[in-house]
Structure formats: structure tokens, C-alpha cells
Amino acid sequence: MPISAPNLSDFDATSLFSLHDRLLDTRPSIARALGDRLIARHARYPIVIFCTIVLIFAIWGCANVRVDMREEYFLPLGAPSRAFLQDYREMFGKTTQFLEIVIDDPVEYEEPNVRDSIIEILDVAVSSGFASRTVSWLVEFAKFEKNTIYDINADTFVPVVNLVFLQTDPYKRFASDISFDRHQTQIVRSRMYLELTQKGINERASLAQLLLSKSRAVHLPMSIRAPFTMSLKHDISVISSGIFVFGVSLVCLLVFSLFLLGQPALTFVLLFTSVAVLAETVGYVTHWGVPMNAITITMALSANMLASVIVMAFCYSYSVSGKQQMRAGVRIQYTFQATFLPVVFACLVPVITYLPLFAVDAPIIIHIWKVLLVNSAATLIHYLFFIPNLCLLFSIHMPAFTSVNCTDCCCDMEDDSSIYYIPTTARAVHPEGIYQHTSYTYSVPKSMVNGGPPNYLAITGPPLESNYAGDYVRANVERTRTRRARRISEVSRTLLPKLL
Q1: N or C of the chain: less Cβ packing under 10 Å?
Q2: Does residue 330 sit in the same domain as residue 437?
Q3: What distance in Å separates the CA atoms of residue 488 and residue 482, rounded to the nearest whole number?
């Protein structure tokens, strides 16, 4: 390419739209026809009903989400270690019915309020239906204290527990549940149990959160352990951690979308779509039997970024659809023409390219694929049904509700003797001037206007012939009849017959 080739260094907004409209392909296509059908007036109510049903079932699934992390999820179906774990659970399955409550630091067990607080925490689990009974040395010691002849106070509590209570036959089974310091003068650690009901087994994480909240309220150093649970701490904190990470991502999307694009409507559509797609992903994979854990939640959060990118691409294409396409319906058709194939491939490629991993028959592989499939389906549903109608809502319906009618507020101040300037000489209109509209829905950020291509030279057509004065009179003078003049005319027509 010669260095001296004619070119334009950059484009302003008017030149950009002029070039865009010259290169625009407005021929009929499948994508344009699809966009026209999806925003048709007769299709709006069915779309609203369909979207409502989708969101209701998604919320229902989120309410019934199941948090679970097991070793078997990472093992192939025919692995010997998996068979060993299954046999071990069958032989010692009853141990899963117990929940260990451990007080790790020294506490004043001899104080009545401390003992009452511990017993009350255990009773909450029983009264809530999570546990059928408690196995606690402290409860048994309270019964022992009522029947003993020993004087139990702050000085004699530990010796009586160590030398008398734990040496009695019915209470020897608690010897492994109490740990003393090396001088045998203080209880440094104790353990108690809850025998869980089926509800407690299924909702072990909820029970643990309930007990921990009660212990924090009374300042007890309590921890909870569950046999055959890979990580009870993981089960308790994975949902809250996922919500925190998602909240941080929403804040980042909010800030960057406002900073880069400067469109509050686009920001709202972006945030709504991100929240809805994640809720639909979690809800529908829960209906499909996929447990929530650190891996599946991380995959759902990562895949949710695809929906955010698609929303920004759709809304940006809608806002820069050209000055010749002023109607919202035509803009939607153009947006589908520009984004339909990229969006479809972006949703299908991750699902299809993941299929070779099915050579590993671990359940976690299937769980991740289900998350990808549901997320892609939810993203496509929003792309086809939610986002176009939201764009119509913010570009047509919302301005119609919030706009102020000039004839109702300010035109009454005009008088019949108002002076209007009417140009009488015809002027040639520059071809680029036809793009100087003010009714464009979105503005184009200056940061997103690209430089002109090399060797491009703007070639304009001949001047347009127009009767500017006549158009101006018809468009403005005939429209300036005010309501005051109309009221005078009506009064004249009413009073004239009476006077005659």
C-alpha cells in the first residue's frame, strides 16, 4: 500500500453513521424474519407468560437447592476405591446419623448459665425435628448431680467429674468425650452428639448453621463435625461464598457498563439478565439432580459471563443500528442479523467441545456438562425472548410513559400574534446533513468510534432538490394552532346562534 494513498485519519459520529448506512445489508434474511416475529404485537403476551413460567420454576429450584460434596463424585464408576467407599458406608452407615458438637476451648461448665446455654442449644435441634435425641455427658452429669452426696461447686466440679462421674459404670462411656489438662484441673475439650432424623441428615448444613448461630449468640467456642462428610465447612459456606463472588461480579459489571457505555438502560438489562440466567442455571440443574458444590457453582458463575457479553453485544448493536433505521422493530431486525449466528455458536461450542471428556466416567464430569448445557439454554432463551422485549420497553414504552406532552403544558402560552421565521430561499441540503437527527435512542460513546480504514475516501452524491420553504410551512405553521385559538373558535360557534 503506498504511503501517499488518500485516506481519512478518523471518523466523527456523522461520518460513521453515513458509512454504516451505505454498507448496510437490508435484504430479507432468516435472522431479520426471526427478530420481526419475536417482537410482533400478537406474540408479546405468550412471550410474557413463557418468561414468567421459566422464572417461577427457576426460583422453585433455587429454593430446593442441595449442597453436597462426596469423594464418589471424583472417582470413575468402576474404580476399586469407589467400591470400597460404598461397602464401608453400607457396613457403618449408622454413623451418618450422628453429628458431633465439640467445644474446643475451656469453658466454665460449673456455671449454671453456661450449662443451660449448652443444653438449650442441643434441645433446639430436637425441638426443630433435626434430631431425635441428644447424647451428652453434660446432660447426664446434671442428673448425676441431683442424686450424688458430693458437694459440687467451682472448686470441686472438675475432680468430681474426673474421679467420680467418669468412674461410675453408667457414665464410663463418656471418658473419651472429655479431655483434661495435664494437671487434671480443667476441662479443655468436650464432645457431645446429636442423633439425627432423616430431616437432619438431608439438611445437615442447615442444622449446622442453626447450631453455630446459637453458639455465637451466647459466645460459646463450638465447632461441628459430621462423619462421612467430605467437608461440613464447605457445605455451610459454599452458597454464601458463591453469592459474595457473584455480588462482586455484578458490581464490576455495573461500574464498567456505566463507565464504558454510559447507558443506564443497558446496565439494567445487563444486571437483570445476569441474575436471571444464574438463577435459572442453578434452579434447573437442581431439578436435574445436580448437587451444588464448589465446582458446579464455580462453573455456573464462569458460564454466566457469556450471558453478560451477549447482552452487551445485543444492546450495542441495537444502539448503533444506523440513522436510517429509526423504528425499534427495524432495529431489532438489524440486531438479530448482526448477532444471531455469533450468539448461537457461542452457546453451542462449549457444550459440544466438552463432549470428549465423557471418556472419563466420573460423575463430576456429567455435572459440569449439565451446568454448561442449562446455562447455554438459559442464555439463548434470554437472547430470543427477554432482551428484545426489554429493549422495546426502554426505547418505546418507558419514554411514552415519562414524556411530557408539549401541547398540554407550554403551548397555551403562545398567542395568535406569534411571529414565525419562514425561510423563503431554497437551500441545498448536504447529503451528510440528513443524519443530524436528535431522535436517536442511544448515543454512541466516543471511545468506541474506530478510525477509518486505509484508502477510504468519502464520495458524496449530488445535492438533493427540495422545496424547503413549503415543507417548513406545512410542518410548522399549520401545526401551531394552539388550544386557546381552538377554545375561542368553539365559543364563537356556540354564542353566534344565540346572538342571531
Answers
A1: C
A2: no
A3: 10
Greater confidence, 351 or 476?
351
Residues 433 and 488 in one domain: yes
Alpha helices by DSSP H, 261-293? 264-287
First vs last C-alpha separation in the chain: 88
Per-residue CA distances from 39 to 100, 263, 274, 312 (Å): 58, 22, 22, 19
Q: Which residue range forms the structural domain that includes residue 455? A: 413-499
Residue type, 152: I
Instruction: Say yes or no: 221 and 244 in one domain.
Output: no
CA angle 188, 189, 194 (to 5 degrees): 155
| Helix (H) / strand (E) containing 224 | strand 222-225
Quick one: how many helices (H) and strands (E) in the chain?
Answer: 19, 5
pLDDT at 110: 85
By residue count, the chain amounts to: 500
Domain match, 59 and 101 both: no
pLDDT tens track for 442-498: 444 444 445 445 544 444 444 444 444 455 445 454 545 555 556 555 645 554 444
* 486, burial (CB in 10 Å: exposed 0-12, middle 13-18, buried 19+): exposed
Place of cell 480443667: 186
* 322 burial via Cβ count (<10 Å: 0-12, 13-18, 19+): buried
Does the predicted model carry a pTM greater than 0.90?
no
